[in-house]
Amino acid sequence: YLAKENKTGIQQYQTGMSKSLSRKMLLEQYLHRAIEHDELYLEYQPIIDVCSNEIIGLEALLRWMHPVLGNISPGEFIQIAEESDLILKLSNWVLFTVCRQRRYWMDQGLAYFYISINVPAQQIHQDTFIETIKRALKQYKLPAEFLKIEITERTAMTNVVKALTTMRELQEFGVDIILDDFGIGYSSISYLVQYPFNTIKIDKSFIQDLHHNSSQKSVCRSLVAMGKNLGMNVVAEGVEEFEQYYYLCSIGCDKMQGYYFSKPISQDLVESLTNHIYTVKL
Ligand code: C2E
Ligand code: MG
Ligand code: MG
Ligand code: MG
């Protein structure tokens, strides 16, 4: 091993495997203090109803800007956080920050759109989860319909009975549940219909090569039809191009999210965007 001091003062081992291991350990260590050091923030990505051309919701997406390492992608740090209890701390921060932000926007008269948060398995299966959600909503005097939670198939499938109970309780309280990244998990359709999702969000991998691949078109059409037949809202994520937008419209998918409309944006930009709601790109 060639141990070397880097500018953070922590030893990095320069062999391939231990290099990535030490980055991981370094990130985990820094992540513990990220909230206290004010390094976390949220971006918001609009979800558009393409019939009315309105922003019906925003997905809150967590960002981490480390003063030395720079921006670290959620793909990297969320996974690290999920391997320990750290994810609970981050998730709670997201929940309360989103409720506070939404209350602020309510007070500014932005009264229509919801904000959805990504909820990992550890959080939804916490015994205190529902209480915490209620506490956050109460603290900011926020009606439950302004908050939605996104869970993946995998999360829905871990501890099925408990997941179902929690979902129903949240829905009775008025918090909708969105199935995120639908289609890439391993759940069969017959499994899915047992779950009372309000919305399914078709994973971006299906949208991405729509126009290169005609069988992908059939898959997309089936997913949209199935969601609708089950009485669920259907959102397509990762819509980047006009052709994708156009095809999705033609098969009756009327809610979309993706770079074609807007990248995830800062809270300030949300305000100017929602002030010009009818000028969203079309
Ligand atoms: P996700 O929940 O499926 O979020 C959608 C991801 O797709 C986001 O990536 C978003 O920036 C990206 N995206 C949106 N539109 C497009 C598009 O048109 N093209 C492409 N190529 N990508 C698009 P991001 O922000 O990097 O987040 C990645 C994942 O990290 C999220 O996937 C989610 O699983 C996780 N994540 C993000 N924020 C949170 C959080 O607060 N809590 C938890 N537990 N997970 C989070
Ligand atoms: Mg999501
Ligand atoms: Mg998603
Ligand atoms: Mg995804």
Automatic annotation (TrEMBL):
Q: Which residues form the EAL domain?
A: 24-278
Domain of life of the organism in this record? Bacteria
Name of protein: PAS domain S-box-containing protein/diguanylate cyclase (GGDEF)-like protein
Shown part of the complete sequence: 293 to 574 of 574
